[in-house]
């Protein structure tokens, strides 16, 4: 599962492990996590062979990067791949005594500003190195520049203009100088891959929750275009924030919120097929995206060591081709979507 099991990241030729961990949960999105438990989770990931770690300034308002760095900084730098994100600068809050860290349940008491300018990208990158305590990252992703955070078109266009006027140049210069191996964008919303590719040939897209066992709508319109233009793809949120790992229960999460009835029905159908073949639903969710050849890696976000142990087993679980054929026959995955073990 480590560096010996890698794929090439698009046209860059840079090799990354096929599975990695994301540190959003360790930034305390859903619950506060003691420092010793966070470090034990990262240690379990390392012991299981994980050598790809993804973090961001926004995760826990700096907490995710601090925790990731505290674990990795004594490891040999050539032994792992590290990615973080740019586009937010953390700043001291104006009202320190009353500042709330929401939407994080814990995290650090820092406010933030969205800044995709030339200077903003470089400042974000340099600040990340300081929080990590590591003087090099491999991949930088433009973070959360989408319609979810900028629902008004004029606001979205203004931030894209910042990138076009200097932010992209900053990323190019970092890559040309050997500071990073690749740069790209994190994707939360349909349509954003095309919007980015219309302006700039990015190296990679980190796609969160939009290409999973539950949904593949962006495959034909966006992911295939990214592949054709030489961009690599990393898939995050493979469990759609939890439901594909936990199954249906009262507190099941889908895309950081409550589980809609329409999605619950689809999960039940997937679970029924999984039960018929004695396949853990989480194993199918982890392995599904890698059937698409442009996908270099999948990420999952553990919050405790047992998550790592279970997902290591899930990633290695042998899934019969008949399972995937049954999922397709049930109409849960379209004919044109690549499936593990089946010809494209």
UniProtKB/TrEMBL annotation:
<dbReference type="InterPro" id="IPR020471">
    <property type="entry name" value="AKR"/>
</dbReference>
<protein>
    <submittedName>
        <fullName>Aldo/keto reductase</fullName>
    </submittedName>
</protein>
<dbReference type="InterPro" id="IPR036812">
    <property type="entry name" value="NAD(P)_OxRdtase_dom_sf"/>
</dbReference>
<feature type="domain" description="NADP-dependent oxidoreductase">
    <location>
        <begin position="19"/>
        <end position="318"/>
    </location>
</feature>
<dbReference type="Pfam" id="PF00248">
    <property type="entry name" value="Aldo_ket_red"/>
</dbReference>
<dbReference type="InterPro" id="IPR023210">
    <property type="entry name" value="NADP_OxRdtase_dom"/>
</dbReference>
């Amino acid at each position: 599962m480590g560096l010996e099991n890698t794929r090439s990241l698009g046209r860059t030729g840079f090799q990354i492990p096929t599975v990695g961990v994301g540190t959003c949960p360790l930034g305390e999105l859903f619950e506060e996590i003691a420092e010793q438990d966070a470090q034990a989770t990262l240690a379990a990931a390392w012991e299981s062979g994980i050598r790809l770690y993804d973090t961001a300034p926004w995760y826990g308002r700096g907490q995710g990067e601090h925790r990731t760095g505290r674990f990795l900084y004594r490891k040999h730098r050539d032994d792992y791949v590290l990615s973080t994100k740019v586009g937010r600068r953390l700043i001291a809050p104006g009202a320190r005594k009353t500042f709330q860290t929401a939407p994080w349940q814990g995290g650090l008491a820092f406010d933030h500003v969205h800044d995709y300018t030339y200077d903003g990208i470089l400042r974000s990158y340099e600040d990340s190195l300081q929080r990590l305590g590591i003087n090099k990252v491999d991949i930088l992703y433009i973070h959360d520049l989408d319609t979810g955070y900028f629902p008004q078109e004029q606001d979205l266009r203004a931030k894209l203009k910042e990138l076009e006027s200097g932010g992209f140049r900053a990323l190019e210069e970092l890559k040309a100088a050997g500071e990073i191996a690749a740069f790209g964008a994190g994707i939360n919303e349909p349509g954003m891959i095309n919007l980015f590719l219309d302006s700039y040939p990015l190296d990679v897209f980190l796609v969160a929750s939009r290409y999973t066992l539950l949904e593949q709508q962006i495959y034909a319109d966006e992911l295939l275009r990214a592949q054709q233009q030489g961009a690599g793809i990393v898939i995050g949120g493979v469990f759609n924030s939890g439901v594909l790992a936990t199954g249906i229960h009262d507190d099941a999460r889908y895309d950081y919120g409550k589980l809609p009835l329409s999605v619950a029905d689809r999960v039940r159908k997937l679970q029924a097929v999984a039960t018929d073949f004695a396949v853990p639903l989480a194993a199918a969710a982890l392995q599904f995206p890698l059937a698409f050849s442009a996908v270099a890696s999948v990420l999952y976000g553990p919050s405790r060591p047992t998550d790592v142990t279970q997902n290591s087993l899930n990633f290695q679980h042998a899934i019969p081709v008949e399972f995937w054929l049954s999922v397709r026959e049930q109409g849960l995955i379209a004919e044109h979507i690549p499936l593990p073990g089946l010809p494209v």
